[in-house]
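Let's do one together. I've listed all components of the complex below, 412 residues spread over two lines.
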Amino acid sequence: MTTALGRIDIWPVRLARAGALLLAATVAGGCFGASPTSSRAPASEGMVVLQATADAAPIEAGMARTKAPAGSPPAEAQAQGRMRIYTAQLVLLVPLVDEAVARFVTLAEAEGGFLERRDGGEVTCRVPAERYRAVRDSLRAFGTVLNEAEQAQDVTRQYLDLEIRIATARASRERLLALLEKAGDTKSLVEVEKELRRLDTEIEQMEGERRYLAQQVALATITASFRAQAPSVPPSQRRGSRFPWLDRVGPEPMLEGF
Amino acid sequence: MRSSIRLAALASLILATSGCASAPPSGFVSVADSGSDLRAVAPDDSLFRLREFDVPAGSDFAFWLGALKHEFVARRGYVIAAERSVEVGGAQGVELTIETAAGGRAGRYLVTAWFEPGFLGDEMRVAEYLAASDVFDEHLDAVRTAIGSARAPQ
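Okay, and this is what the predicted structure of the assembly comes out as:
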């Protein structure tokens, strides 16, 4: 007679088959976590349907919020069914740091983003992925770009793996619950419950990881380091140039001359 | 008769080599024009000024480029955000851009300077453009066009 736990031992083989089918179905579909299907595993073996995830919805909602301009990286990635995390870092020379910081935060908020962190003249804002390029380009115009870097990390495979692992774990959980009802002796009952607890923890961890990935994809991260233009020495505190005409050019003399 | 012709030629030469003889950039209105000092303003308070300065004889463009950069960087503490070589009417020049908070607002200042050796003495011609950071680029092409059309050395 096969014990309850003995039957569990052969599940990985079946679930691996189910995972392979799931992988094929998902790749063919070209999207992840978007299928509005039940979270329950079907009764027949070898068939697992992706769970409809509440946390995957914000990705789509976020992407649909504003039409991405054709040809922008997030739009291209979306069209290709890819999931990418966009990050950019800019170092800008600006006349007034505080003003630049305020403008950047206002810009990010106007595009549906928010301030994530500020440390002096270094500011990090999160913006919807589809507005990433527009915000970055606007930011460039704040001053003189001294340095710029950007990354597009493709996490499609990582996300897909998580989806499969979660679906597999959920299917196992359903099986265990069915076994729990049939468990005849206390020892089997305890072992099944122990396995259920372990699976629950594992599923929670994987779902948390998936939520984190989804948020990272939905919101690009832009960090701007604003550096102040060295304060100009006021004309009153400056000795005259040996070439008088030079004293008459520059921003301050120009303002005085109008 | 010959002396009259000579005088007329000299007068023409003086007239031809004096004054900036330039128009303000498109979108600007001239508020003062003395012939050697043109000042113009745009509706958004962007400023444009074109002037000429007599400079000591025996110098050249490289000398004044060095002096101009020294003035801005070493003496006033500015950082040159952008620098590019330009040619104005065949004369070699430079265009410098700096970020500035002059007047208490975030702005950008562009100065284009070129050297013109003359019959009656050498000159530096200087075009300046000052605008708020957010509108600076809007006038940039017009300003460069106006500078480019400043009269060529005679």
